[in-house]
UniProtKB/TrEMBL annotation:
This is Sugar kinase. It comes from Flavonifractor plautii. CDD domains: KdgK. It comes from the Bacteria. Keywords: Kinase, Transferase. Pfam families: PfkB (PF00294). PANTHER family: 2-DEHYDRO-3-DEOXYGLUCONOKINASE_2-DEHYDRO-3-DEOXYGALACTONOKINASE (PTHR43320:SF2), SUGAR KINASE (PTHR43320).
């Protein structure tokens, strides 16, 4: 069984029930989520030995966060315990023409106040084949930039494949800060995952004749973006998720995977999604892609599996993608009827 390590922040997610607004609700749903944790849960559900690394307090909320991963089979033995608080994000689900709202309350969280010396990467990477992180983690502070750098160096020294989802978050750092940190970190990355905005926000690389607010995409433009990213950082593969936002409730969803060695650009089929919960959609794509590549799927098969996994996630409440390989392969194979399984 493949061993995959992911590293990032696990947060409390607080959200009004159904589609209520913050200003009208008097009770909130309490769950957990976070980019790299979401990837770990996806992989564990696919039968992969998924190891999640973070820093969490020893109190009851920190333990509840750990338990939220253990219940799905994620290995939490490398979680560092310490600090005083678990980061929080408040999520207001949008609908129709009203967009979702995300408010962060993660300052002074346990991982944000961690130091590079807290993490023993020699021990963490024992037996690992893959390491995954996102651009959210180094955005938490210079100490996390250095921790990610040390993790990437340790992984590279062991021949471990490294994937990174650029995941630019303007509420956490500036474009210039992101460019400086990610330019450094991406030199270690083998598989880069981006979306229709990240490449532009972080590196100034933009798809031509594409208007994401109008929901129009230009495939040739994205091929150019992928090649520019690969040429800049010598990536082995570049994946770009393509979201056509018709409204907060209805999106078109597809992706492209560029394999550099074969100069092969593969576009997936497009799914017309009616969204239950879009948080974690990109992470579920990342989890699906890592699984597919670890299992030797072709470029076309890999992007189809990853997009199908993510399409299913959009129909599941919460951050975590709770689907099986069989369910993903059924959808990727063309069965999108949604008929009851008896």
């Amino acid at each position: 069984m493949a061993r995959v390590v992911t590293f990032g922040e696990l947060m409390v997610r607080l959200q009004p029930y159904h589609y209520e607004r913050f200003v009208q609700t008097d009770h909130l749903e309490f769950t957990f989520g976070g980019g790299e944790a979401n990837v770990a849960v996806s992989l564990a559900n696919y039968g992969v030995d998924a190891v999640y690394v973070t820093r969490l307090p020893t109190h009851a909320i920190g333990q509840a966060a750990v338990n939220s991963l253990r219940r799905y089979g994620v290995d939490t033995s490398m979680v560092v315990r310490g600090g005083d608080r678990v980061g929080i994000y408040y999520n207001e689900k949008g609908a129709s023409q009203r967009g979702s709202i995300c408010i962060y309350d993660r300052a002074h969280s346990a991982i944000q106040e961690s130091q590079p010396s807290d993490f023993d990467w020699d021990k963490i990477f024992e037996g690992a084949e893959w390491f995954h992180f996102t651009g959210i983690t180094p955005a938490l502070g210079p100490n996390l930039v250095e921790t990610c750098r040390q993790a990437c160096k340790a992984a590279k020294a062991r021949g471990i494949k490294i994937s990174c989802d650029l995941n630019y978050r303007g509420k956490l750092w500036t474009r210039q800060q992101a460019k400086e940190a990610m330019t450094d970190l991406c030199q270690y990355v083998d598989v880069c995952i981006s979306n229709e905005e990240d490449a532009k926000d972080v590196f100034g690389i933009e798809a031509e004749r594409t208007d994401i607010t109008a929901g129009t995409l230009n495939h040739e433009g994205y091929k150019s973006v992928a090649k520019q990213l690969a040429d800049k950082f010598v990536f082995e593969k570049v994946a770009i998720t393509l979201r056509e936002s018709h409204s907060a409730s209805d999106n078109g969803w597809s992706a492209m995977l560029y394999d550099v060695s074969g100069d092969e650009y593969c576009f997936s089929k497009k799914y017309d999604l009616h969204i239950v919960d879009r948080v974690g959609g990109g992470d579920s794509f990342g989890g699906g892609l890592i699984y597919a590549l670890l299992n030797g799927k072709s470029t076309q098969e890999a992007v189809e599996f990853a997009v199908a996994a993510s399409a299913l996630k959009h129909a599941i409440e919460g951050d975590y993608n709770l689907v099986t390989v069989a369910e993903v392969e059924r959808l990727a194979g063309g069965d999108g009827s949604g008929r009851i399984q008896r």
